[in-house]
Amino acid sequence: MTRERTLKLGLKANAAQFTLLVAINALVGGMVGQQQTVLPLLATDVFGLTGYTFIFTYVAAFGITKAIANYFAGTFSDRYGRKPVLLVGWLFAIPVPLMLIWAPDWTWVVAANVLLGINQGLTWSTTVVMKIDLVGPRQRGLAMGLNEAAGYGAVAVTSLLAGYLAGQYGLRPAPFLVGLAYTALALVLSGVFVRETRDHALLDAGRHVARPDGLHDHLHADLTDREIALQTSFKEPALSSASQAGLVNNLNFGLSWGLFPLLFATAGLPVGQIGLLFALYPAVWGVGQLFTGALSDRIGRKNLISVGMATQAAALVVIALGSGFGVWAVGTVILGAGTAMVYPTLLAAIGDVAHPVWRGRAVGVYRVWRDLGYAVGAMLGGIVADAMGLHAAVWAAAAVSAVSAAAVAIRMYETHTPLTVADER
């Protein structure tokens, strides 16, 4: 009864903490943005690397480490609370910019991305879970849209800023000083102002009502960690469909991270234009999520996910066919739009199906699969690019995205009962 009186679910009731967590997630995204434009150019211009597969090792290292960290973020946040996991995640970020500034060889860059993967897995997963805790069931799509818009909007802005700094002052150290500032600010905000949200999840669990169609009756509150992993990965149609779509979505992001700057450089574009092209993708992605997350609360999740994956496939075809700034700009904008349809909607679907008691672990398992896409995309892109060229790697990603869209359309069921106007009042 005390919890009922002191805690409330909903975006309006928790606006201050929710806004703070949105700001912190923007700083999380900025840690990735500081290096996306710069590191591929650092690999070729400073360290003299030529093999695409070898250059992409830093993306693979980041993706694998982040995937593993996601699992522990979910498990530890359910077991020990959300705030301690968030703080530990930011401690791992401290050495990253310094290692990139002082790196004498490429192994330092790979090691820095291992630490960055741990930082991203612990902090981003935790802010996702905390926002779902706060808002309750009615506005999950909107909450995830705001969360992911902040994160990937910051990726775009910081990518553009890093590209500008690199063009004006060189590839090192200027772009990475931004990451030092982000880390210091995030540690202060997380340590002093963030409050624990696990009690909100317990309140949500106490009010949990089974679906009238019985779809989730087998997903009761006392599943083991192994059962949660199996349901989210393979067995439960909506959860496992979300996991595979998330993997392919981040396959595209991982491939773009390592490959797009090199592809754009083949046309002789200056660093500033390359930075602008790379920023367009997460910028449209970030801003678009402000609308698509809330839209999924109104029309449901499944169609947005399947159409979004198909849109990504079409965008990659445009990029593969292109050879100049104008066409590539169109392709990256379409790719961002498709990703915006998918990204917050997948997280909202996980929140729809997972019981509040094991929601953190389900989000963690989903994000394991999703962020393995970074590594798969980097390695697929590197291997195909080495064997057949950069454009062939983009065609391969387009084909995989089309298959993913079809799989969602066939296997996934609708997880959300759309809101009416009366529901939102």
From TrEMBL:
Per UniProt, subcellular location reads as: Cell membrane
Recorded hits in SUPFAM superfamilies, A to Z, give: MFS general substrate transporter (SSF103473)
Major facilitator superfamily (MFS) profile domain segment(s): 14-416
Recorded hits in Pfam families, A to Z, give: MFS_1 (PF07690)
Name the domain of life.
Bacteria
Its record classes its membrane topology as: Multi-pass membrane protein
Molecular function terms from GO: transmembrane transporter activity
Instruction: Report what the protein is called.
Output: MFS transporter
**Organism of origin:** Dietzia psychralcaliphila
Higher taxonomy: Bacteria, Bacillati, Actinomycetota, Actinomycetes, Mycobacteriales
